[in-house]
Design brief:
This protein is mainly alpha-helical. About 60% of the residues lie in helices and about 0% in strands.
């Protein structure tokens, strides 16, 4: 990866690859399952030692959580990049910080 993969690209890619509105419940159940697998990997400290062999590691499970969260966002036609911006603004008003959210980064 080149470090330039956007959330918008991931959402579009997922929409083409895995978009089944009739499976809404199943997407949520998969998300919950993947959160559990992430929890287990974190508890056991299973980080990929070389970045290559990721099976059953925190590295793999974090992607699975992101995958299903974005797939669910697609089912509801939610632009996650826009939500991030709005939520960052909301959080800034509640929890001011010297670190500001910058778009297009």
């Amino acid at each position: 990866m080149d470090g330039k993969t956007t959330i918008k690209y991931l959402q579009n890619w997922l929409r083409q690859k895995d978009y089944h509105p009739e499976l809404q419940k199943d997407y949520f159940l998969k998300l919950a399952e993947e959160v559990g697998e992430l929890s287990r990997a974190m508890r056991k400290g299973q980080k990929a030692p070389d970045g290559e062999n990721i099976k059953g590691t925190i590295d793999e499970e974090i992607w699975d959580v992101i995958y299903y969260a974005l797939a669910i966002a697609n089912l509801y036609d939610i632009d996650v990049e826009q939500v991030i911006k709005r939520k960052a603004e909301m959080n800034e008003s509640r929890y001011p910080s010297a670190v500001k959210f910058e778009e297009n980064r």
